[in-house]
């Protein structure tokens, strides 16, 4: 059995749930990791946990509240600097894993709906910001999506659900946006050797539905999560996508295998969302020069 | 339509800003946090084709208000709608707060609101309506132990708004008081509702719905808006039950919620 080459990985939402489990398995396999956590406190806790579980772990944490686009810009600049000095300007895998659930319409400083901002826009802007080191190593982008993207459409006339907010619909839409973003990214960057994937982690026992929620949402999730698997189960799929020698086939991956995804995920919708996302982040992403 | 929003960088102010932008109104935003205003402006102009300007100031400071007035008048702007959203609360027993904190509640919630309203009326268009939306609270409906000063300050706003509306109605100035229950605007607001258990959830309102309906009602010249059926029932019940009894029930509820919150 040949040794798997060491990979440089950036992962968001690294301090709990799936992200923490993925960090642990990456570090145990000897990869180098940058984790992003929301607060210094949670990063500190995750760091000491990871160090206690692994020897010689090469992990660095950065803190940012990624639903604020401003903070994505600041932290990605810091990460770029780190990658240039320590990783020779190369990033093998970016894992956009951070996500949230809300029980009510809440907005970011920009006035964006929080689930859309964190689950989709943060991933979009983070990938844009780190695209050069990804190109340099012909890297991969992994996004934590969900089976809940199926049977959903994008509300083009009211993306941020300002009309009547339905928490679960907003969540499903954000996960569909992840799929559309990966599709669009492959369209634009596969010529550079980059490949994007969405992972369906299945039902996992994490605290995602309990943070900053109340009432029916937190109650429903506290019951439902009990049926979920532990986060180290989906972590195996992430490790597979990180370590595979060649880019594995497929866009939507569940348990190391490509899985069928919604027919709504097509070029027309991906391009449409891409343009809106560019505008919302005020960037130009992947236009041919 | 030109709209002024105070406290625009916070949850409810921001929701009003988004709702107004959606309707194509031009915005003049103010808040004490300049950073928040700048970011909100960027977010709004990316989404909607409107004009947004902002001016960061402390609305309790007379001189800064003068500068805000200058800022508006040199631009030759007329105003059609004013949202008095800026407000604060320092929850807890009266004697357990510093007097400075208590005074701050009065200064922001009452004095600054009056000052801004007085000043902005100068920018009314002749022969056009001028709408004022004063953010009161469900707390204005009852005396509230442990939120005594806050509730009383919101009662002031409610009564003042009714009276002002009557006074200026013939000059086509329309004043609406918004009396919402809990709104999930910040992490601590969400925690505050969670510790109140069932009633915290039941009396809370949906931010996006409140923002939309408040504007609709103001356009229809309504004078008060208490969002949520249960909140309206409470409000009516509060008028018929003896005030001492209502106050005692509220005191018991808040005492419990507050102690739960402190033990968190």
Report on this structure.
The complex is a heterodimer of chains A (about 290) and B (about 260). Chain A has about 290 residues and is an alpha/beta fold. Chain A has a single domain (about 10-280), classed as Rossmann fold (3-Layer(aba) Sandwich), CATH 3.40.50.720. Chain A is built from 9 helices and 8 strands. Chain A has helices spanning about 15-30, 40-55, 70-85, 115-130, 130-135, 165-190, 215-225, 230-245, 265-280, and strands at about 10, 30-35, 60-65, 95, 140-145, 195-200, 250-255, 255-260. In chain A, strands 3-2-1-4-5-6-7-8 form an 8-stranded mixed sheet, with helices on both faces. Chain B is about 55% helix and about 15% strand. In chain B, helix 1 (about 10-20) packs across helix 8, helix 4 (about 100-120) packs parallel to helix 5 (about 150-170) and helix 6 crosses helix 7 (about 195-205). A 7-stranded parallel sheet of chain B has the order 3-2-1-4-5-6-7, with helices on both faces. Chain B is globular. Chain B is α/β, with parallel strands linked by helices and about 260 residues long. Chain B has one domain: Rossmann fold. The interface between A and B is medium-sized, with 27 and 31 residues.
How are the SSEs ordered, and which strands pair?
The complex is a heterodimer of chains A (289) and B (264).
Chain A: E1 8-12, H1 17-28, E2 32-37, H2 40-53, E3 59-63, H3 69-86, E4 93-96, H4 114-129, H5 131-136, E5 140-144, H6 167-189, E6 195-199, H7 215-224, H8 232-243, E7 252-254, E8 257-258, H9 267-281
Parallel strand pairs in A: 1-2, 1-4, 2-3, 4-5, 5-6, 6-7
Antiparallel strand pairs in A: 7-8
Helix pairs in contact in A: 1-8, 3-4, 4-6, 6-9
Chain B: E1 2-6, H1 11-22, E2 26-31, H2 34-47, E3 52-56, H3 62-74, E4 81-84, H4 99-120, E5 130-135, H5 148-168, E6 173-178, H6 187-195, H7 197-203, H8 207-219, E7 224-225, H9 229-240, H10 243-262
Parallel strand pairs in B: 1-2, 1-4, 2-3, 4-5, 5-6, 6-7
